Amino acid sequence: MIKKDDNPKFQKFGLCYQDGRVWFTREAERRFYFILTLIMLVTGILYKIGAV
Question: Which residues cross the membrane (predicted)?
Answer without folding.
Answer: 32-50
